[in-house]
Acyl-CoA dehydrogenase
Amino acid sequence: MFELSEEHREFRHSVRDFAAAEIAPHAAEWDRKHYFPVEVVQKMGRLGLFGLTAPEEYGGSGGDFTSLCVAIEEISRVDQSMGITLEAAVGLGINPILTFGTDEQKATWLPDLVAGTKLAGFGLTEPESGSDAAATRTRAVLDGGEWVIDGAKQFITNSGSSITSCVTVTARTGEKPDGKAEISTIIVPAGTPGFVAEAAYDKLGWHASDTHPLSFENCRVPAANLLGERGKGFAQFLATLDDGRVAIAAVALGCIRACLEMSVQYAGERKTFGIPIGRKQGVAFQIADLKVMADAAEMLVYRAAALKDAGASRADFKQAASVAKLYATESAVTATRIATQVFGGYGFMEEYPVTRFYRDAKILEIGEGTSEVQRMLIARSLGLPVE
Ligand SMILES: Cc1cc2nc3c(=O)[nH]c(=O)nc-3n(C[C@H](O)[C@H](O)[C@H](O)COP(=O)(O)OP(=O)(O)OC[C@H]3O[C@@H](n4cnc5c(N)ncnc54)[C@H](O)[C@@H]3O)c2cc1C
């Protein structure tokens, strides 16, 4: 079940070649300059990476979720910024529209997103609503055939680039009979008056990915921009995040693999006391631990992907997604710490990629549901009434 098919392995090679030629040589410079390489994103589009799971009628190849995870893993093996750009573009940009959109919405937005000529963001997080995503304060009111949106979102990936075509945002659209907020999702085209993607964040890592705070002030979009049914926003983002968790675990897997490969190579070359450091158990055992993390994360990521591709029950997939996300992302943080240690002082210098991987890894334990949230979801899936 966890063995990748021959087809997946061949596909892995083609993405690996692309990443080695088009991304790896430039990743350090993009990181240093905080540069979002639109031209490379569009090349990834021409390779078909954004359309891997999209139907052919929108320009996709109608492939499986496993293929997408393979692509994300391979891109992240050289650059997490580009890995997360792909992950968010598909998982958070394309998927909500593909899954919940009307035929007209799909025809309007998907062809460009699938081609990778445009990007879409997914605005859920707000200044006062992150883990507690249902506490959204952004409001949308129907007025004269239009939604009028007021509020703010923060930390939104792919939301303010020069090729961002739209963001889907969650907003309170009323109150349910039980007094809880009615949450709906609305598509907001880039350039709509009242919608502003503010200056990009200055982040610890993922410097070459596009992340912005968003503000909405008397922002009017047609009533037809409602995504799916009114009041279904909560269920929509929960489903969106389940897939996203496996995909972000694939980013983490790429990071662990890179740490392993960099460490094996360096430990074979670097000598202290007259012999390569890899001959010393203190170093070699740490690298052995990296191999265990890489293999375990691989099994968990591709088990979750296989469950999705096989149409497993939502409960089984949801639990496997959280398990993969939790293990792979926490292991990625540990792996970057170990790799940095193996590199000694050079591990602290930007001339080696290991430094960039160290900075990039931390957010993996936070985005798309923190480690604490994953533990909460896993505990609940075991029947524990954890709050
Ligand atoms: C670079 C980047 C990109 C992002 N991209 C997107 C995006 O595209 N779209 C989007 O909507 N969001 C995005 N996010 C937001 C991200 O998903 C949130 O930051 C994350 O869900 C955590 O929310 P928070 O930051 O509000 O932390 P909080 O919810 O305030 O959590 C703070 C701490 O409290 C802990 N905590 C909270 N509740 C509990 C609990 N019940 N039990 C135990 N511990 C708890 C958390 O685990 C965390 O350690 C991005 C964030 C970053 C940094």
User: Anything to note?
Assistant: The two ends are 34 Å apart (CA to CA).
